[in-house]
Automatic annotation (TrEMBL), chains A, B:
Pfam families from the UniProt entry: ADH_N_2, ADH_zinc_N
Protein name (record): Unannotated protein
Organism of derivation: freshwater metagenome
GO terms of molecular function: oxidoreductase activity, acting on the CH-CH group of donors, NAD or NADP as acceptor
Ranges for domain Enoyl reductase (ER): 17-335
UniProt keywords, alphabetically: Oxidoreductase
Amino acid sequence: MTVNRQWLLARRPTDKAVRGDFEYRESEIPDASNLAPGHVLIRNQLFLHAPTMRNWMDPASNSFYPTVGLGTPMLATSAGVIVKSNNPRFAEGQRVTAITAWEDYTILNADVWPVRPVADELSLVEAQGPVGMNALTAYMGVTQVGRPKAGDLAVVSGAAGSTGSVAGQILKILGCRTIGIAGSQDKCDRLVSELGFDVAINYKTQDVEKTLREIAPEGVNFFFDNVGGDMLQAVVENIAKFATIVLCGQIAGYNDGVPVPGPRNMMRLIYGSVRAEGFLLGDFEEQIPEGTRQILEWIRSGKMVHREDIRSGFDSLPDTFSDLFTGNNDGTLMVVTDEAARTRP
Amino acid sequence: MTVNRQWLLARRPTDKAVRGDFEYRESEIPDASNLAPGHVLIRNQLFLHAPTMRNWMDPASNSFYPTVGLGTPMLATSAGVIVKSNNPRFAEGQRVTAITAWEDYTILNADVWPVRPVADELSLVEAQGPVGMNALTAYMGVTQVGRPKAGDLAVVSGAAGSTGSVAGQILKILGCRTIGIAGSQDKCDRLVSELGFDVAINYKTQDVEKTLREIAPEGVNFFFDNVGGDMLQAVVENIAKFATIVLCGQIAGYNDGVPVPGPRNMMRLIYGSVRAEGFLLGDFEEQIPEGTRQILEWIRSGKMVHREDIRSGFDSLPDTFSDLFTGNNDGTLMVVTDEAARTRP
């Protein structure tokens, strides 16, 4: 590789992101001969596609999420190798996960941006899959934010997705009864047979609010919500006293251009003494090592499964991203570069 | 008094409650000669009007709040005297606060329904005013649910109301900077001059969202919301990272017939790591003595003021209730019975 391939954000999508929203460019590899203190040069080899990246494509607002500048490389959660380092915490050749961008090479200040070493026993796929950003987000959302009680009736929306599938399994491990909501019969079957959910609801063929009322007449004690909109409404209508709602994502609204309404009838939250709480993985930086260790232990002891959907080819980055919003991914969606694909990273 | 005067709910209001929604009836005084164990007969002397009573007039739903049966006396927060007791915790002549109804005499099971003794040094007005349901609701919402930090920028909606005025003063005592939102210039002036708010916003003449952005560019850390709807939206648009929203009331929607939408853009709650939590005073039954003691201490030491709006006449109950929704009350709105009005209770 003698050039730095990049996918730049060329225009802001108003609906789903499509290839035409990005511009392919071949730049020079960044000059790392004189790195500023704290900075590292990373060779990106794997990109994780997460739904919230769609928000980063929106115009700057008075909200909190980052906005990718037009004409600059699309930000992404990635894994790769330190090629050059002027940071005492990172050595050349070290494998890391980081927030870099859709490009081959990224220079960044590792004291400011998240860059985390990948343990020797893990592949890059494992580092961004079973113990990657989505899985750790599920872990923190359940154990640190939501803190369910054993015996709780717990619902997960987007349950077949990368975060939801982990959240559901952790809830089961913690002793909850689990109901997963997904968008196809195939996914629903898998929620029960593979991921251990007690019940699955197909929101494309079933009325979620009514079905929940039938199968959970005592109400929902815990809701891990990746979807928002109608899903949030349907569960709020069935919420139990003293319930907890973990606000993890609002994928229902990411392509809409207008914000999704929150749940109608906030009175249910008042009279129900319900807590609804949003969070980001970055709020729990200190708990990441423990979360990583715990998830790996669950996986190795057979208590948890993880499914990856790995695509290859730097060229495919914009196209594969849209699969997140059409339900065409089958597990944590990652793209490995052509070079890296030759040896499973 | 030889009859039991009652105001029955005759039909369910679809907008504001009006006198025609109620039916006046004179019944026999309940026979207390053979009270069931745990039961007491209470002579009601004072009725507190709280906005949430409007919700109790709605049809039964799958929500949690109580529904008053058609043709039965309207439920109300009250104060009065135990006339007859078959409950070891209550003696005849003892003054109490309770959830009774718009009637002169109520029999209820004091082991099931909330009945609380009134301390000797308090009048019935004080028991339902400065340390009544609304004031204690503010106390629990701030100190037990919200738990603000000193230095927080705190906003209170419905700040001139019975609950909001107490919440704002407690926030100030705890070291917050306080912004109050109210619906008239007169009330706004009073928020600052009498209740110690740092700033007041008149939502009828000012754009709340825009004004907050100007006077709180760092964002709102703490929101005590009595109103919901547009007020909740305006504050959410200005919410700071790691903020807390205490969901106390949704008076904006109580007369609408349809539930008020929750805040749009729940993403702000996610990326802001914001907690929104509803509650009821009854969740904190054990903390009520301590809250009562603390509020009285603040009042006696001059740190807190309390304003009562006391009307008299059992006949006026339905008409005075509607003043809550037109802003025509000036402090905690209570109605004392004609008999009781002769000696300030």
